[in-house]
């Protein structure tokens, strides 16, 4: 099992910066958590630094040390993960630590909110992507053979289970209800999404009739088998190729989007392009007992160590971490502070066309908490 | 083997409208082919109508009749395929006829040019997507089991072979050289792509180290093993998620893009969004002995039969068909006529914000041939 807090409000967070700009944005997120105003009900944070990543692999031969897993399980209530570099050539024995972490901690849903900031001049959208986070092609069951002509033939297994599809689907419908509830606090004129909450199921069952067929039927079944609970939630579907097309043409047409692992990976990068930068998009890897916040961006080796990285994705991921640990008030403070900085538009990193440093953006967010 | 033309310039084209708007846009493409000015060297067309599609399946129990395949092989030098509807529920025994056609005729590369029209106000781009067309998850090797708890678990095989990857890679590098040659006829100031030709390899080898590792190494090998031939072609790579992100942020950064089947499917819909409509984007399914032109859009049941479908994707696909059959002069005429209509911007279907009918757009193209 996972560690439960000894005192009610003590929260121990594992910090796993990993590679590249992960080492700049995770400290930024930590600073924001530490700057939250203290109240009776707010958490008291302790932080533990934990190793992982491709650079760690290069030095020590292991990308996700056993100690990191043990301490996460034994001492932490949640974690923040930075980013991991991808080897540019095949490296024997290396395997992505974030994929392993999701699997080992059974973090079955990757929750990725992508929203435009009002007045940003960008297309207006406010969608939440729920990415199934444990299977699909990410099970990494691969093999290679040699054919009769001496040529190589490789295979990978894509797994879709009723169990995992249902968990992801439930998360999607529950989040749709939750978002609807939160929206009711916002004046109607300021709401981007006006209709009933909606879940869009992404699949490619016109080709993958068995695997994506099972995915589609199972997620549909979540609504059909809980008709009363989810009566207020609409449901529709999109083939993954059409999804990418429609997302760019009418991103305002989506509320909650639920997708198998790889489609979710691709769609969320696409959605990030719509809001102006991957440096803005957070995620939470959510399980029943543990949450790992993780910016959607990568390790960006080209700008690492130069104070150019946008810390907002990591800061928002810290917000998601709090939200999914039950501290929604503190999470909302973080989101509002970030939105304030973005709306003002004065202090921004180069990815948004500005000249501010990682530290300057972080300080600006902290000032508004 | 495939039919060879009895007289040198006689070209027999199989027309397979299939479902929905396929029945409007294929006749449009035929009209354009028939309206090409006749010269000594230009082809004399004969057309054969052939059946396929989901509606055909519903009536006759087969989506791609044996007769269609036999006549394509025995009587045709090429074909035009319309679009196929996707069943909204699982339908026993149904399997996509276009996927089957690609496989049976060994049409190993799907060539998808996506270019903006100068002065359209859209982002400027001019890319060519080469999609591997025979394997990846499209081999449809799927199975379903029941686990110890009575829950379903489904698997699909993803196949990546050295053989197919090399053929797709060769097509990409050859097309990069070809495009470079064609560009040299365009005044430098009007060229969208200014640098050396470039091939971008799309993969996800940070997760799929064996299958996408083989894909990446094999496509790289095409250049490395033909160093002299491809010395003038640059090569880089993008993870599929980053590809979708970058394509939307800087589409001008891409020349030729080569991708495994499913990634190519997704990327080309994304690229279509950038040029304003799926109704503009053509493709050619290319094999060593046969070509099938096919608009990238679907069967659009919501607008079928209303003269609202944009015929341009199908008309451009007829151009691609001619180009890959060796009639590049006639192909160029079609492209120029289409570009003329688009640049003028007066006659356009509703997807482009106009009110013209399928027939009006077709007539406008024919007038400019
Ligand atoms: C680094 C990589 C393995 C990872 C993924 O594909 O899940 C990343 O792209 C992400 O989205 O978190
Ligand atoms: C209809 C479908 C099977 C097809 C595909 O996925 O290849 C279509 O999306 C396409 O792009 O031609």
From TrEMBL, chains A, B:
GO terms for cellular component: mitochondrion. It comes from Linnemannia schmuckeri. Signal peptide: none annotated. It comes from the Eukaryota. One of its GO terms (molecular function) is NAD binding. This is Homoisocitrate dehydrogenase. Gene3D superfamilies: Isopropylmalate Dehydrogenase (3.40.718.10). Residues 12-365 form the Isopropylmalate dehydrogenase-like domain. GO terms for biological process: isocitrate metabolic process; lysine biosynthetic process; tricarboxylic acid cycle. Belongs to the isocitrate and isopropylmalate dehydrogenases family.
